[in-house]
Each structure stands twice: as structure tokens, then as C-alpha cells.
């Protein structure tokens, strides 16, 4: 029973947000819950008591269990906390997500961090005081220590779903994370390059979030699986701060990557299209100095890849990402499957 009542409580808790949106305040009776979960009444009561202890429901003698005022008071706003709502792939995602949530009676509110943990804290504090229907967080860096985790825990303790986008902080441990299958994606890019007779492949990945490390892991695994050589001199890492400098027009990092690139390298896998695009710009400047052309591939299939520079890039349907986020907000799904990358080949 020890494990079962906790699982029942977790499943019931996950449905509170949708019940509230549907205008249903009363939980199924103990007898109905016993039938639903094929368990004893004592197990059901233990699950309900756990939820009462969290302040999520109240019990009324002779009437049943009801969503507490704390949960009922949660607004219809969904907070999305991202680095920059106007940057890169975010505008299209936000447009589609706002439309999808509106169909469920929810309004999307965007808050930006500019890559600052202090600004993230301000956004989280506002979310905590506003009692939104859910909080979607794009972590700044889930590898570095973050003093905002207790604040995120306080949001979760109020019964507000915390949903991570792309990567996740270590708590709350049961928070959902909408992410792509980055290991498999990197393997697809290595295999694509091998099929084009590239054998010496370099990489540029971000090292302070797990997406970059997963892509690096897939890159290394695919080299060995395909019988291709691995050389640490071909591996290049950057941080979130490096990225912001690159986007601001500082090419120092990429110029150093190109200058130190082993001469036998013929292809490079980049963290994403914004890095790949700027790498191509740097390569264009040094090509006249005798550097041979490098094939550049990347992730995201953004406008950088499709219209600006014609980069072969991995992408996925934005509607798949939006559907996964919307399902998570409404708590229709507990463990979303990682979204698969699809290769978009360009010459």
C-alpha cells in the first residue's frame, strides 16, 4: 500500500488543474476511487489524506472531497519564463502555444530572464504571487548551481504544475520536461555526414546545459558506432555567456575554433542554427586565405537554416512541441516522450 497510495495521490493531484478548468470541484467518492484503482478504501483514504496535508483538497464529512480554495483560486494564466521571447525560434513557438492554450480557456503570459538568474528569480517570484494555472520554465543553465530552486519548489508546493522546456532543473523531481531526443539527433547528423563520405567530423556544443552535453554524447557514440575516429582536438565547447557574446557580434570564439581546427576536418556539427550560421560567416572570411570549405550541419531547422544560409539541420514540427506543452499544462500526460528530430537536407 505504501507505494500505491502515493501513486494514486500523484495521479489525482495531476488532474486537479483540469478539473478546475472544467468547473468540477468535487473529487470522485472513496468507493468510486476504490473501483478506479482496484484498491482498498484504506489505500484511497491514505492518498486523500496526503493531498489534504498538502492543502490541495478538503474533506467535508458526509459530502466527500473537494478542491481546496487555494487550488480553486489559481488563475487561468500560464506563465512562460524564457531567456528572450523575441529571439530565434521563440516567436513562432509562443504564437502557436498562445493559440493552443486559448482553446483550453488559458492565457499565456511571457516573462524573460535575459540569461540572468536574478531576473529568473524575479519572474519566479511574480509567478508564485500570481498563482497561475502552470509555470513553464526554460532553464538558463541546468548544469550550474541555481539559488532559485527553493522558489520553484514553493511554486510546486502550491499545487501549480511546473513544466520544464528543453532541459530541466533537478527539482521538483516529478516535474515534466518537454524535450527533444538529442542523443539520437546527434547520431543522425553523424550518420548523414558519414554517408556523404565525411570521416573527420568536428563539433561545437554548449557545455553548461544538458542539451549540449546530450548532443555531445550522441556525437561521440555515433563516431564509434560508425567506425569513425574521435579526436579531442575536434571538440569545441561554449557557455551561455559565450553564446550571448556571439549573438552580439563578437566572433572571437568562432575565429579561435576555425584557427585551431585540425586541417583534416571536413565537417562540423553545431549546437544549433544560430551558431552554424555565424560559423559559416567566419568561414567565409577565412576561406580566401586557403582554408578549405567545411560542411556545417546543426539543430533546430530555423529560418537561419531554411532561408538565410541553407544549412542541413534537424527539426521537428512545432505543433508536436506545442501539443506536448499543452498536454502537460492540462496534466493529460505524465511522461511525455522525447520529441524525435527529423533531418532537413539542403545543399
Q: Look at the structure and give the CATH class of the largest domain.
A: Alpha Beta
Strand order of the largest sheet: 9-8-10-11-12-13
SS summary, helix count:
15
Taking all residues together, what is the mean pLDDT? 90
> H/E order of the elements?
HHHHEEHEHEHEHEEHEHEHHEHEHEHE
**Regions with pLDDT < 50 over 5+ consecutive residues?**
none
Helix content: 40-55%
As for the CATH topology of the largest domain, it is Rossmann fold
In CATH terms, what is the architecture of the largest domain?
Answer: 3-Layer(aba) Sandwich
| The CATH homology group name of the largest domain | Response regulator
Structural class: alpha/beta
How many domains? The number is 3
**DSSP strand content:** 15-25%
Word description of this protein:
- The protein is α/β, with parallel strands linked by helices and 347 residues long.
- It folds into three domains: 2-71, Winged helix-like DNA-binding domain superfamily/Winged helix DNA-binding domain (Arc Repressor Mutant, subunit A, Orthogonal Bundle), CATH 1.10.10.10; 74-178, 3-Layer(aba) Sandwich (Rossmann fold), CATH 3.40.50.2300; 182-315, Rossmann fold (3-Layer(aba) Sandwich), CATH 3.40.50.2300.
- Helices cover 46% and strands 16% of the residues.
- It has helices spanning 2-14, 16-21, 30-37, 41-53, 69-72, 90-103, 117-130, 149-157, 182-195, 210-225, 240-247, 252-259, 273-286, 303-308, 318-329; strands at residues 57-60, 64-67, 77-82, 107-112, 134-137, 162-165, 176-178, 201-206, 235-238, 267-270, 295-299, 312-315, 342-344.
- The strands form three sheets. A six-stranded mixed β-sheet has the order 9-8-10-11-12-13, with helices on both faces.
- α9 packs across α10.
- The longest helix has 16 residues, at 210-225.
- It is elongated, with a radius of gyration of 24 Å.
- The mean pLDDT is 90.
